[in-house]
Amino acid sequence: MKIAPSFAEINSLFTNGDPKEVWRKASEIIKLINPAYDFTVARTTFNDVVRLFYGEYPGYCAIKTLYHNLHHTMDVFLCAVRLMHGVHISGTRLTDKEMTLIMMGALMHDIGYAQRVGEESGTGAQFTLTHVGRGIKFMQNYSVERGFPSDLAGPLEFIIRCTNPAEIIAKIDFPDERTRLLGQLVSSADLTGQMADRTYLEKLLFLYLEFEEANFGNYQSIHDMLAKTEDFYANIRRKLDNDLGGINTRLSFHFKDIYGVDKNYYLESIEKNIAYLAKVTKLSQEKHLAMLKRGGIVEKSESLLAHIKH
């Protein structure tokens, strides 16, 4: 008999700061789909992406963006693995190649923030509007350099494009419906994985700093961003349900298989974040940041913002 997860176990679903632990969890889930799965390409990509974030990849500096950091990529990656397990056992069987594409897409969706040696100014947030295209070019060159099968790069371009907030999924000319499905899955994991993070609200301060550096968005202040995030989430829910085909709901199949509980813990975590945000934004602005206490993020972001202003 399967036992429902404890509060600590549920919280640990979104604690993805250790790449080694993330890979352990992911590989165990993949083996549930296919015990004989060949991890070579996925594991190589995982290791190289981690190296890229750490500044250990030849020709590149460490990725310095505070919101779109390694933890964010690990959140998205593990959410994508859990979601593809849910999709698979719900009846939409995935091939080994499709699983590899999903993992590579999740791992490489934000590598366009990486700065090459020689372009170290700023944090990389200046590439906010171009990071998807930069990431696709990196992926294409990387796939050739690593000698990966030539039939991966083509679908990966479409999958990564789906994570671009400015992209209209319905207008993408996918080569086939299976590639559309994979793109919807990775894009759903990108949105769901980041918003379920227990420090998501605090990390909005980091996102605000990235947008400031990129001169992007119409936020007048961090308080303005917090106030507008509820409407942003309403738009995200519509996108998940419509443009992305509601595929995120199949996370519940994963959790029922693992814990015997028919729940979508990602959605529950997001709803808790948004409910708490509603409480925060009802207060006066001077009380907002005092309500966001996790991870020491407020203190770091305030220090950075003060530095920028001076």
Query: So what's the CATH class?
Result: Mainly Alpha
The largest β sheet comes out as: none
DSSP strand tally: 0
Tally of DSSP helical segments: 14
Low-confidence stretches: none
Assign the CATH topology. Answer: Catalytic domain of cyclic nucleotide phosphodiesterase 4b2b
Mean pLDDT: 94
Radius of gyration using CA atoms only: 19 Å
Class based on secondary structure composition and strand pairing: mainly alpha
Order of helices and strands: HHHHHHHHHHHHHH
The domain tally reads 1
Can you tell me the overall shape? globular
Helix content: 55-70%
Residue share in β-strands: under 5%
- Ends: how far apart? 60 Å
Architecture in CATH? Answer: Orthogonal Bundle
Written account of the structure:
This protein is mainly alpha-helical and 310 residues long. It has a single domain, classed as Catalytic domain of cyclic nucleotide phosphodiesterase 4b2b (Orthogonal Bundle). The protein has 14 helices and no strands. It has helices spanning 7-12, 19-33, 40-54, 70-89, 96-108, 131-145, 153-161, 177-195, 200-214, 222-241, 251-259, 265-282, 285-288, 297-309. The relative contact order is 0.13. The model has no long low-confidence stretch (mean pLDDT 94).
Describe the structure concisely for a colleague.
The protein is mainly alpha-helical and 310 residues long. Helices cover 62% and strands 0% of the residues.
